[in-house]
Write a structure and sequence with these properties.
Pfam families: HTH_20 (PF12840). This protein is of the alpha+beta class. Helices cover 59% and strands 13% of the residues.
């Protein structure tokens, strides 16, 4: 991941509805959720949600798959992994032991 991709991902997650949408999708992995259910759970109008999901998809953080008339949305965990790795790649100035607590906490997830 390069700096531009990281900035796009962080920008996508820096808005409340998009962050809530992404977190909801992560909780529903690997099945995902249809757009209507996401809108219902977050109490967001469908057209507004569509815009937010499109931004997450362009940032590499969400995917969609059509099943007949229903579009199922999922978190793109590869995009999340790449963003997380970008953020911690140079963790603690070359002293990986300082990142131990962070890695331990992530391992619990």
């Amino acid at each position: 991941m390069d700096l531009g991709d990281a900035l796009n991902g962080l920008a996508a997650l820096s808005q409340q509805t998009r962050l809530e949408t992404f977190r909801l999708l992560v909780r529903h992995e690997p099945v995902g959720l249809p757009a209507g259910e996401i809108a219902r759970q977050l109490d967001v109008p469908a057209n507004t949600l569509s815009t937010h999901i499109a931004i997450l998809a362009r940032a590499g953080l969400a995917t969609s798959e059509r099943h007949s008339r229903v579009i199922q949305y999922r978190a793109d965990l590869n995009g999340l992994r790449a963003l997380m790795l970008f953020l911690v790649k140079d963790c603690c100035g070359g002293n990986p032991e300082l990142c131990g607590p962070l890695l331990t906490e992530l391992a619990c997830c």
